[in-house]
Design a protein that fits this description.
about 180 residues; alpha+beta; 7-stranded antiparallel beta sheet
Length: about 180
């Protein structure tokens, strides 16, 4: 039996030119789960059709994704490698399929409000702080990371991920 999964997401970007260069520089990813240039879309960037912030979207389907914890780790590390190289405010990726629905969220620490910095660990925010960003689960507003619901699935993995494999090194070397 064949099982499909899909992942879609949005990244609120600060620096269009830098982000465009990074996304365009992605080569064909040969290691599963794949992340390629054509999985991203900038949408409209011209004012008045775009107001204030530009959203970079992502969409992909995968076969049998999500059953193996290492696939989640690799996907998260690949996305985080991209986030490190672009100017972003926040990012949210929703994965859905036969396994369950999971939403991953990142908020750039340099773009976080005083309220977020003060309360990131509370139940209201439920975020994990790193040196680069706040990470959490659940559907959130891209400008303000409060949860819309307290009932959301989490992955059973330790975050931040300390997981280096040749697959990730090859991906990192390409951009």
């Amino acid at each position: 039996m064949w099982e499909w999964n899909y992942i879609y997401g949005a990244i609120l970007i600060k620096d269009f030119n830098k982000t465009f260069e990074v996304i365009e520089s992605l080569k064909k990813d040969k290691e599963y789960p794949f992340i390629n240039t054509n999985m991203f879309n900038f949408g409209e960037t011209e004012i008045p059709y775009c107001y204030d912030d530009i959203i970079l979207t992502f969409g992909a389907t995968y076969k049998n994704f999500g059953y193996d914890e290492s696939e989640w780790k690799i996907f998260i590390l690949k996305i985080e490698h991209i986030l490190r190289r672009i100017g972003f405010k926040s990012a949210q990726f929703h994965a859905s399929g036969v396994f369950d629905d999971v939403t991953l969220y990142w908020h750039d620490i340099s773009d976080a409000s005083d309220e977020i910095n003060k309360n990131y660990h509370t139940n209201e925010y439920d975020l994990i702080k790193t040196n680069e960003w706040y990470f959490g689960y659940g559907e959130r507003n891209l400008h303000f990371p409060r949860l819309k619901t307290k009932d959301y699935p989490k992955l059973e993995l330790v975050y931040p991920i300390d997981y280096k494999k040749d697959i990730i090194r090859e991906f990192e070397d390409r951009i």
